[in-house]
Amino acid sequence: MKLKVVILSLSVFAYTGFTAQNIQNNPGSNHGNKFEQLGTILPTPNIYRTASGAPGHGYWQNRADYNISAYLDEDKRNLKGSETVTYYNNSPDDLDYIWLQLDENEHSNIRNAGYDTSSVLRPSTTDQQLKVTDLPVKDNGYGVSLEKVTDASGNALKYTVNKTMMRIDLPKVLKKGEKFVFKVDWNYNISNRMKMGGRGGYENFPEDGNDLYTITQWYPRMCVYSDFQGWQNHQFTGRGEFALVFGDFKVSVNVPSDHIVGGTGECKNYDQVLTSDQLSRYRKAENASEPIEIVTLDEAKKAEKNHSKQRKTWVFEAKDVRDFAWTSSRKFVWDGMRVTIPENNNKVMAMSFYPKESYGLYRKFSTKAVAHTIKTYSEFTIPYPYPVAQSVEAANGMEYPMICFNFGRTEKDGTYSEGTKNGMLGVIIHEVGHNFFPMIINSDERQWAWMDEGLNTFTEYLTEEKWDNKFPSKRGPAWTIVDYMKLPKDQLEPIMSNSENIVQYGPNAYSKPATGLNILRETIMGRELFDKAFKTYAKRWAFKHPEPADLFRTMEDASGEDLDWFWRGWFYGTDPVDIAIDKVTVAVPNLDTDPKAAAEVKYQVEKPLVNSFEDLSKIRNREDKNIKFYVDTDKAAQDFYYKYDRGQEKVDNNKEYTIKTEASLPLDAKDKEKFKNITGYQIDFVNKGGLVMPIILEFTFEDGSKLYDKSAAQIWRLNEQKVSKTYYFDKKVKSIQLDPMRETADIDTNNNFWSSTGSATENSKFQLFKQKQEGGTVRGGSTGKVNPMQAAGKS
Predict the structure, then answer these.
(1) Which of 391, 225, 248, 265 minimizes the C-alpha distance to 322?
(2) Which residues form the signal peptide (predicted)?
């Protein structure tokens, strides 16, 4: 008996292995959930936030406008304030109370958040670290002192202070579309931030007896009420930063008359607070392409020597900002220049304020770095919309709308190290960049630090690269996160962790998300797709409140890339990348095949392919006289297997039957000459780290030439532990390097290399036949045992 086999042929240069066998040999344990959709992990889309990642047609957000007067008492180091707040309820909900943040209570030892951390006895301690325990705790005098809380008519409002939060109970329900106006008077003692820490406070310069004030988180600020959380009134501990609403600000700051003040927004009365010379210089700086000193170094040094008792009031206005911060000192040198944002033709005043201690660095670089930052961020996100961008040297780093505080001081002789210079540039770029994340693209920092710090650190890296291609960026490139990813699992947390609960805060909130975005841009998506999607996210959520799902969904929606596997692994997981070259099989073709052997395959018919167990349904179906079974008598008569499976056809299982393989033809002399130098390479990879990534290879050949190839991460989708890649080359491979540019954050590069002389290699041969086309159907040869279903022409 002769049977004909018809199967699909494989190309001469294709992988000749039976991949299904790999799956059979490695059953379900190879498949986890790395490529499953995030599904219910992400919040359900609704009318406020769509499945595409865009704001929905029902999106809303509340608003607060502020009119604030502040008085800085330098002698007492006390700040006194009075504010009128107009709060707009744009939500569909009725509100019977509102929440405000009293962040300065962080410095109080009795009204802080009360989030203790573990403490131990030190083997050695300094006198400053040694604090005698005094219980009960006595009030240290810091924190907000509320003097009056009233409605617009002066009627007292009922309120409750819970640590760093204040709830005001409304006299009547605030309905959708209504506004509520209230007033708060308060004061607080300004803390020495160099000793007590925190973002705001004063720094004292004992050599000249002056203070430099950074006034931040200084007024009672509205909490966010949102569709995704309700009131964001989590306590402020000093780490998890701020969730704030947008609004317009008018702020009057009364300070000693010899102080120079910088603040969020535009100053509206420079003609009243500056000298005629300073005002003239400011007007020149408004049109200058290089920084011009508005307050000179000599003027700042002179002001340090005389502490005026006179007062001046500086008036600032800012529109569509979420916060207001300011700085004040008689020590300031002040310079500025105009920078134009090409995307919207916005003419921005870039400025810097700094004491003489940082003159050697800030005069050279600060304002230029401010201008470079807002221009570069505008390219990658949205055009910078504000009229001002300012950098203040204050020995720390913190950001607010249109103003930020940075470090960068020289030695006493004016010299500085390369490390100090680059550190200063990095922090200026980072803090100015925060104007975009989160000051405009207004994420909830109290919950998701990475949406602020991580996205900003990524864009900072792009900006540093455009400042100087050799800039020693510490965060962003994939290889810089490796030391963190190598840590034991009990020292790692998912990026998707609350700000207060992260142990390795810097790597987890800053470096890892920034690195992930860089890997997406350079390795997974490509720059064109990534940049379009990232700009889409920035545009969609500018001046709104985005959540993580809005970013994840927008990046996929605007690019057409399924990235759920990446969000799952990089943001929700802690597995590192460690892909290893396990083995390389080198095979050469067997060109001297016997034509007869190539054309025939010995075959034994297998046992009948009927079910080995007669299940209940089959038995009942046969017993049911109402069931008529389909029978094609003609085909039943012709089909060998129909009768064979039912015992109507007998086969001698000890006898070998010959199958003609018409398409398996020997190579002729011309073909042999063409393919004699072909070598096949099967590279076996092992996923040791757990996090899937693209497989990127650099082949180096014996003639010195190189070839690069990349397989998308989806190569792991059917087997997350082991995969193989097969290549055929017409020249010999000398070595193979996995991830040659260190772009996947692989934590162990020692297992990323194979050479023809010193690595695990298995030698083999493969049969090479000539293809034959018949009737448009590609037919091919087969070796080994053939399934009867294939022999019958079935698939």
Answers:
(1) 248
(2) 1-20
